[in-house]
Design goal:
It is a single chain. Helix 2 runs antiparallel to helix 14 and helix 8 runs antiparallel to helix 9. The chain has one domain: Glycosyltransferase (Alpha/alpha barrel), CATH 1.50.10. The protein is mainly alpha-helical and 453 residues long. The strands form seven sheets. It has a three-stranded antiparallel sheet. It has a three-stranded antiparallel sheet with strand order 14-15-16, with no helix packed on it. Strands 1-2 form a two-stranded antiparallel sheet. It is built from 14 helices and 16 strands.
Length: 453
């Protein structure tokens, strides 16, 4: 239809409708387009500063990158001078890692998969099929436990009697994302040290001990492992929420990879495992208020990160997801959840005691430091998404708090600035400058939300 000057009223009305529609759409987003552009830019910058290019020198004592390709470490500047599997895998959905870079890091991770069960000097066991916690860049040697860069010193009770459970599932994510973004199905049958990649993925999937029927990841004190590397200083036992969420996702990814490979039997097998895990999450871990507990054993507090991620992954019935959303919204508004847009692992009201946030933590991790009560940006996107289900205004405010703090501390402003930090707590505790998942994880969530609006 063509409008002319004789129809001013209709033209004005349509312009008004378009303006209102745009205003409503903008108001429905919990982050503005301008702020998302900024977040994308700083994410790209931090990721680039996290790259360790071939022959690049590391801080003194760590040599240079001799792996033959680019690696991505957990952050820039002097942050973590090695290749960490989980931080990298958690950042893949930014779409900012090239196919060549992905292929190199995927093959390196596969090549360092444990090929023989062995016991460390500290009494911990590295089972066949385990994936490294981090890989040294000068000699490509795997370190399977947190807390050290020394091959001979790895594996003590403080950081678990088995390697962290999460890395096996993040290895699968690396392969899935590579195949999805490149359509290179041949990679799955590529032999690495004589074993095909798809076989290595399947072996890794079955490393973490799990319930045989429900497929929920499980641990006991004598065989304890870190459930998720972002709380490797915390002791958690029993049925474990967070690695079970990761296992659910990995099962779906394996199912898809087998489907693409033409193996319908195994595709169905792993889809059934994912279905079983999804059905078990709420009955096993949910409180009446919708919040999920980190475990059924030690450190069984209501898990902010795990609950928010489960809501984001659509693993809870809508009634429970909405209840959890309301709990998180109230905790945000009362100051028990967040600070400057960063998120605690456990709400202040759920601290185990006056001296520790989690029930179990290594002695060096005092209350309100590191994973024992400090605030992290890594989970901000998941929490904002969960809150937005029932309280968009609070979700929007949390996102704005986050972006404001990023802008104020942005390391690109000069040497006196170190943001985004890994974690922090007032008045003066800080850790980890120019930290990757502090921007990559929220960007992935906020970008998806913007696309889906």
């Amino acid at each position: 239809m063509v409008f002319n000057s004789k129809q001013p009223g209709i033209v004005f009305f349509l312009i008004l409708l378009i303006w209102k529609a745009e205003a409503i759409a903008q108001n429905s987003n919990i982050i503005s387009k301008e702020d998302l552009v900024y977040l994308k830019g700083i994410t790209r910058a931090v990721l680039d500063s996290s790259r360790i290019r071939p022959a690049q020198l590391m801080p003194p004592g760590f040599g240079m990158n001799n792996t033959g390709g680019t690696l991505i470490r957990p952050g820039g500047r002097a942050t973590y001078p090695a290749f960490w599997i989980r931080d990298y895998a958690m950042s893949l959905e930014t779409g900012m890692v090239s196919a060549e870079e992905q292929r190199h890091m995927l093959k390196l991770t596969a090549a360092t998969q444990c090929d023989q069960t062995w016991i460390t000097k500290g009494g911990s066991m590295v089972p066949y099929g385990a994936i490294a916690d981090h890989i040294l860049v000068d000699n490509s040697m795997p370190v399977y436990f947190a807390g050290t860069y020394e091959l001979e010193q790895q594996g003590t009770h403080a950081f678990g009697m088995f390697p962290p459970y999460c890395d096996q599932f993040y290895f699968i994510k690396m392969a899935y994302h590579y195949v999805k973004s490149t359509a290179d199905l041949k990679m799955l049958n590529t032999e690495i040290n004589g074993i095909s990649l798809i076989s290595r993925l399947e072996t890794a999937f079955h490393v973490p001990p799990s319930d045989r029927k429900l497929h929920i990841v499980h641990s006991i004190e004598n065989y304890r492992a870190v459930d998720f590397g972002f709380r490797d200083a915390i002791h958690i036992t029993g049925d474990l929420l967070y690695p079970s969420l990761l296992k659910y996702e990995a099962a779906l990814e394996l199912s898809e990879l087998f489907k693409k490979s033409g193996n319908t039997k195994k595709a169905l097998k792993y889809k059934d495992i994912a279905t079983a895990i999804k059905a078990a999450i709420a009955p096993k871990f949910a409180d009446e208020d919708g919040m999920l507990r980190a475990s059924t054993g030690k450190s069984a507090q209501r898990d902010v990160w795990g609950t928010a991620l489960a809501v984001y992954m659509n693993l809870l019935p809508s009634s429970l997801a909405n209840k959890a959303s309301q709990v998180l919204a109230i905790a945000y508004k009362t100051g028990n959840l967040a600070y400057k847009g960063a998120i605690r692992h456990v709400m202040k009201t759920d601290d185990f005691s006056s001296t520790t946030s989690w029930e179990g933590a290594i002695p060096e991790t005092t209350l309100n430091s590191y994973q024992n009560g400090a605030y992290w940006f890594t989970a901000t996107g998941w929490v904002a998404y969960a809150i937005s289900k029932t309280d968009k205004a609070s979700a929007r405010k949390l996102a704005q708090d986050y972006i404001t703090e990023l802008r104020l501390t942005d390391y690109r402003r000069g040497s006196g600035f170190a943001g985004p930090l890994e974690c922090f707590h007032p008045p003066s505790y800080t850790r980890g400058p120019v930290y990757l998942t502090s921007v990559s994880c929220p960007y992935i969530v906020f970008n998806k939300m913007m696309i889906n609006e």
